[in-house]
Design goal:
The complex is a heterodimer of chains A (273) and B (251). Chain A is mainly alpha-helical and 273 residues long. Chain A is built from 9 helices and no strands. The longest helix of chain A has 41 residues. The termini of chain A are far apart. Chain B is α/β, with parallel strands linked by helices and 251 residues long. Chain B has a single domain, classed as Rossmann fold (3-Layer(aba) Sandwich). In chain B, helix 5 crosses helix 6. The radius of gyration of chain B is 18 Å and the shape is globular. Chain B starts with a strand and ends in a 10-residue tail after the last helix. Classes of the chains: A mainly alpha (273), B alpha/beta (251). At the A-B interface, helix 4 and helix 5 of A face helix 2, strand 6 and helix 4 of B. The complex binds adenosine-5'-diphosphate (ADP) and magnesium ion. The site of magnesium ion has 4 residues of chain B, from helix 1. Magnesium ion (MG) binds next to helix 1 of chain B.
């Protein structure tokens, strides 16, 4: 083999090694995240339950997310009305009176749950990862342990519960407000009375659609809390480490929401949702 | 009489770095033992093994007659309750006020009423000279104050043993002396056994009953402060006199 060939060969070996390490790291992380999730669920039922800290998390995760969730879903509802309504009208006049059906089904099944969760992954996930990550690098998590307190019990459980309880609530509000946005556009751009929008929405959306959309967001909420807290627990190396933990928590939560959305939707279709 | 704490042949490695290489030490009940050594010599790592935050690769640590790595769930909680830890950077919970930090375990694990807890927190804060700071946030305190709150939190449950990681580092000399007095007082009046990690020689001579010096993963010296003063091991001498020149490389 020529000298040049040898260099190329060595680089290829190194590249494969790096890919191999990457894959191993990924599996290690997924394994550790699964254990972390199982432990979080197990610790839900342990005492003592810190009610004050849980209320604080409900406020952080839920109440403070309402403005972000509602403003964006209102505009998404409006933009859908605009983008679907106008071409439909060009295709067949009067057909915009069915806008309520199109917007509401998309809102309920996909847009509100996924979009709101993605937004909250940014808002809630980053703050969870940064807060827990800071606690990790400043030895506050070690301090918890020495104060006879399991860090998963104290830090992960309330964040997990707050997310699975409040994120579906924010999504429910987003469904309502998103449809309101759609109705507003239907009324002002296509002269469709609100009652007609509502009637057309009611005709297409049934209970299983609502169940599908809202229960999906329970999973998304769990994913955000578990991934972000877990990433915070693994932060190391001072402020820089906290920064990169925060970024990867948000990116991985969003990716997980989008990927799992497909699988959850598929499973729900199997049971007829 | 057997020792309250006994460290037997403890080895701790991080990948290729051997930080502790067969460490032995006994601490008797009621003693104040200082572990000294230059930065990076493994003092904090030793402490973290003793409070179960790290597990040694080899060796055993017995505290109060029990192997601390073989405790069942109940024994572990008992172990946590009888040991208090002051971390090097205090490690106060920054989302909680000083009051909630100091009362953390009292609120979680005792049946004391609100007013009883308030009295205990008052007493502990008075002890560290910080009465009136109950509602402050840790971030608004100097590191010296944070460390004193950390000490108040560590002694809230009246532990039998306290571990202090560099209690006087980053604290001005007057406050350092006050922290030293506090440790002596806890030891004298409450009979608390104390292990202090330090490289503050003044504080060591003022407070310690016995001193152990960590060097190259082992104890280079173990003895009383008197013995430390008179020891003629060049490595020990260099550290005690604080000289940049000698057998121990400084940088
Ligand atoms: N969690 C860890 N992972 C890897 N190395 C560590 C870890 N903790 C400490 N070390 C290393 O162990 C050595 C001793 O550190 P430490 O005990 O903190 O020193 P000090 O005596 O100043 O307290 C240092 O070289 C440090 O880098
Ligand atoms: Mg240290």
């Amino acid at each position: 083999m020529s000298a040049y060939g040898q260099i190329v060969f060595m680089h290829m070996v190194k590249a494969f090694q790096r890919i191999g390490e990457g894959v191993l790291n990924l599996f290690e992380t997924i394994g550790a995240l699964s254990i972390f999730s199982a432990q979080t669920v197990r610790w839900i039922f342990a005492s003592p339950f810190d009610g004050k800290y849980f209320l604080h998390q409900l406020n952080e995760v839920g109440v403070k997310s309402i403005p972000v969730g509602l403003v964006s879903s209102f505009f998404v509802g409006m933009v859908m009305g605009l983008q679907i309504g106008a071409p439909m009208e060009r295709f067949m006049e009067g057909i915009a009176s069915f806008l309520g059906a199109g917007i509401s089904i998309a809102m309920v099944r996909e847009l509100a749950p996924v979009l709101t969760s993605v937004l909250l992954a940014g808002r809630v996930g980053s703050s969870m990862a940064a807060e827990v990550g800071t606690m990790k690098v400043t030895e506050q998590i070690d301090a918890l342990t020495t104060l006879a307190t399991n860090p998963i019990h104290y830090l992960s459980v309330p964040r997990f519960l707050a997310s699975v309880v409040t994120i579906p609530m924010v999504v429910t509000l987003a469904i309502l407000v998103g449809n309101f946005g759609g109705a507003v556009i239907s009324y002002f751009m296509f002269n469709i009375p609100i009652s007609q929008y509502a009637e057309s929405a009611q005709r297409i959306v049934n209970l299983s659609d609502l169940l599908s959309g809202i229960s999906k967001s329970v999973f998304f909420g769990a994913e955000i809390a578990l991934i972000s807290t877990f990433t915070g627990f693994r932060a190391s190396g001072g402020a820089k480490g906290v920064g990169s933990a925060t970024i990867s928590a948000v990116v991985n939560s969003i990716m997980m929401i989008i990927v799992s959305d497909y699988f959850i939707s598929y499973l729900f279709q199997l049971v007829g949702w | 009489m057997s020792a309250l704490i006994s460290i037997k042949n403890v080895t701790k490695k991080f990948k290729d770095l051997t930080v502790l290489d067969g460490v032995n030490l006994e601490i008797n009940s009621g003693e104040i033992v200082y572990v000294i050594g230059k930065s990076g010599s493994g003092k904090s790592v030793l402490l973290k093994n003793m409070i179960r935050l790290f597990k040694p690769d080899e060796g055993e640590i017995h505290i109060d007659g029990l192997d601390i790595f073989k405790l069942d769930e109940k024994e572990l909680i008992e172990f946590r309750k009888k040991t208090g830890v002051l971390f090097q950077m205090a490690a106060l919970f920054d989302s909680l006020t000083v009051f909630d930090n100091v009362s953390f375990t009292l609120r979680r694990f005792t049946k004391y009423s609100k007013s009883e807890i308030k009295d205990i927190v008052d007493e502990k804060l008075a002890l560290v000279g910080l009465r009136g700071y109950e509602n402050s946030w840790p971030a608004s305190l100097s590191i010296g104050m944070q460390k004193r709150v950390g000490l108040a939190r560590a002694i809230a449950m009246e532990p039998k043993i306290i571990f202090c990681d560099e209690p006087t580092t980053g604290v001005d000399p007057l406050l350092g002396a006050a922290v030293d007095d506090l440790i002596k007082k806890l030891n004298r009046e409450l009979g608390v056994t104390v292990m202090v990690i330090s490289h503050d020689m003044e504080s060591t001579f003022r407070v310690a009953h016995r001193v152990a010096m960590l060097y190259n993963g082992k104890f280079e010296f173990t003895g009383t402060t008197e013995e430390l003063k008179n020891n003629d091991n060049p490595i020990v001498r260099q550290f005690v006199t604080g000289s940049a020149h000698g057998p121990m490389s400084v940088i």
